[in-house]
Amino acid sequence: MKKISILIVVIFSCFVLVSLKKSTNEAYSAIASTEKIAKHYSIQFKYFQNQVHKLDSLSQLAQSTKDFKAVQLEVQKTRMVYKEIEFIFDYYQTFYNGTFINGAPLPKVSEYYEEGRVIEPSGLQALDEVVQETEYSESNKAYIKLLTQELKQHVDFVALNHLPLRVKSSQIIECMRSGVVRIFSLGLTGFDTPGSLNALQESYVSLQSIETTFLLFEQEVHWEAREKFKTIQNLFKEGKKQLKSSADFNTFDRMTFLKEVINPLYKELYDFQILNKITEEPFKKHAQNYNATNIFAADFLDTNFYSELVYMPLDNPKTIQLGKLLFDEVQLSNNSILSCTSCHDPKKAFADGLPKSMANANGSFTLRNAPTVINAGYASRYFWDLREYNLEKQVTHVIDNNLEFNTSFATIISKLKASEKYNKMFEEAYQGIDKEAVNERSIGNAIAAYVNSLKSFNSPFDKFVRKEITDYPEDAKRGFNLFMGKAACGSCHFAPMFSGTVPPFYIETESEVLGITQGFNLQNPKLDTDRGRVANGVNIDKQPYFKNAFKTVSIRNVALTAPYMHNGSFNTLEEVMDFYNNGGGAGMGLEVPNQTLSAEPLNLSQKEIKDIIAFMESLSDVEYVNK
After folding, report:
1. Per-residue confidence (pLDDT) for residue 65, from 0 to 100
2. Cα(373)–Cα(384) distance, integer angstroms
3. Quick one: three-class SS letters along 227-262?
4. What is the C-alpha to C-alpha distance for residues 326 and 341, in angstroms, rounded to an integer?
5. What is the pTM of this model?
6. What single DSSP character describes residue 382?
């Protein structure tokens, strides 16, 4: 009996030792993988840093046209090297990257760096644009020298704090998934290559770099995740194959790439994380919902990111129900003339079908067109001129405006408190938050909660790219590819919201200067006089380049919400497309300082325009049709 007991103890001890060894090996492998990734990244970053130094040295010495050609090639090479580190660098250094290393080639006032001072265009996108100019003039030469010198300084500065990088497996998975989103939404649209349109080649390098990093997990693949690992390997191969097989930016099939590569990769990388027992601990604060598995899923973006500081979370059913009643309540306006639905009518996809909305006084109109409030919650700033940062506070601007509700919160509170129904609903929703349940913040919160609930992700397009349906018009497929490619629409109306909220982290909401005209007249255009963002009252926006700038709104349900633009000057989508096709106001011969839209014609044929409109029409959600 004693021998048996000893044998059991020995067997058990062996089992424990094997288990401990296995656990130790797994832990070592996990550490080894992250260390490998960090080391590989450091080597690549230093290679990028050295390449930037080489580019700067070359540009400083350049004199002739031949030298200029060499600088052009060196810029392309530098960008390719950058693409190998971008998906990790941008994750950890988002704002610095967007301001100094690879931000859009536009002046900006950063809220994070040198606040209050205009930061002129800098970095790789600015270089990509300027080196494509045909004439190597003295001013062009001096500008290139300045850009490369500044890029060198900025890269050297960030390297001091950025390296060595310590990473976790969960963070690297998130880097890769966001990198996949970036390739599709910024790379393949041409946003990232405004001059060269070298998008396919750069996207290939980006995808290959993500693949290389993913393969460094190979030594720590849990047995349950082995098949998933192989599946992801095959997806990377397929993605590179598709990118390699087409050398033409305009004809690349983005729809197929989205369905067969991008969406599957986004999902499978998450599934791999779960199966491989990698803890879900997102490092970065951004709008992507970590648990989403499709870029066009309803839960891909989380509106809670944009409403973090609200009075009460906007997903409370009681406040949504109350907000719906308040949205249709005429008592909120002076003389009970208007309600929110006067300008945002549910039967008209929450717009009103007018160029400019009816004002509080009979026979007069507001200053701007009423955009739909569907999906309004997916933004960091609100109104056409971006004057508000908080969805909850939007109502304040409407209440105070003499052309709109033309009243005060004190008056509204008095009216609502006189109603037994409203008193009861406010008490149920907000009891205990403040001394009085009916107050300025609770009214704004309730309306914001209802607006935030208006979400649209079930259009025919969404269902098709999620593989929920197979029937989708061929002209709409062609239109999507044009929208995301040749027509350059997707470089401002970013997927998946098709708005100005910038991927891959969807933290900032952009505006554009388009040179909008008064009415649609190609022969005798007149520039609209609305000053837009520069006059919104926000100190940081009082910059010349924000004159005539307006928010880039979503085109989801756009076929239901005519007329278009901030002044309602275009009656049809055909007119909108003709305006863009001609290069906006500047392309039509108007003087438009700081126009962000290229003045060069898009050279779209009438058939191509019809295809793009077919795609936009496929973004109509049946939930909001004939409501």
Report:
1. 81
2. 12
3. HHHHHHHHHHHHHHHHHHHCCCCCCCCHHHHHHHHH
4. 10
5. 0.93
6. B
DSSP 502: P
CA angle in degrees (0–180, nearest 5) for 206-202-480: 95
- Alpha carbon distances (Å) from 407 to 65, 388, 441, 449: 65, 19, 16, 22
Can you give 74-89 as a three-state secondary structure string? HHHHHHHHHHCCHHHH
Please check whether residue 454 is in contact with residue 405, taking contact to mean a CB–CB distance below 8 angstroms: no
Q: Greatest CA separation found in the chain? A: 106
What tokens were used for 60? 């400083």
Structure tokens at 209: 């770099």
Tokens standing for residue 574: 């055909």
Beta bridge partners of 490: none
3-state secondary structure of 532: strand
Smallest Cα–Cα separation from 109: which of 534, 439, 491, 567?
A: 534
Long-range contacts of 107-110 (CB under 8 A, 24+ apart): 107/543, 107/545, 107/594, 109/540, 109/541, 109/543
Q: CA nearest 253: which of 184, 207, 205, 206?
A: 184
* Predicted pLDDT of residue 363: 76
Cα torsion 487, 493, 498, 501 to 10°: value is 160
Domain range 460-624, its CATH number among 3.30.70.3400, 1.50.10.100, 1.10.760.10, 3.30.70.270: 1.10.760.10
- Residue given tokens 């990093």 in the structure block: 213
Question: What is the spatial distance between Cα 542 and Cα 533, in angstroms, rounded to a whole number?
Answer: 8
Q: Which residues, including other chains, have CB under 8 Å from residue 14's CB and lie 6 or more apart?
A: none
**What is the fold, at CATH topology level, of the domain defined by 304-452?**
Cytochrome Bc1 Complex; Chain D, domain 2 (1.10.760)
3-state secondary structure of 498: coil
Alpha carbon distance 445, 320 (integer Å):
9
Rounded Cα–Cα distance for residues 570 and 513 (Å): 16
Token pair for 495 = 């997927």
User: With the C-alpha atoms ordered 393, 396, 401, 405, is the resulting torsion angle positive or negative?
Assistant: positive
How far apart (Å, rounded) are the C-alpha atoms in residues 207 and 513? 32
Structure-block tokens of residue 356: 């400019």
Neighbouring CB atoms inside 10 A of 303's CB total: 19
Sign of CA dihedral 536, 552, 348, 355: positive
The dihedral through the CA atoms of 140, 142, 148, 153 has a sign that is negative
Are 570 and 515 in contact by the 8 Å Cβ rule? The answer is no
Flag residues of the chain having pLDDT under 50: 1-30
Give the angle 584-589-593 at the CA atoms, nearest 5°: 70
Alpha helices in 84-123 (DSSP H): 86-92, 94-96
Structure tokens at 309: 């500081």
What does R_g of the chain's alpha carbons equal in angstroms? 27
Q: Which pLDDT score is estimated for 6?
A: 42
How many other CB atoms are found less than 10 A from the CB of residue 149?
13
How do residues 377-433 score in pLDDT, each as one tens digit?
999 999 999 999 999 999 999 999 999 999 999 999 999 999 999 999 999 999 889
Encoded tokens for 367: 């200053």
Residue with tokens 């600088």: 71
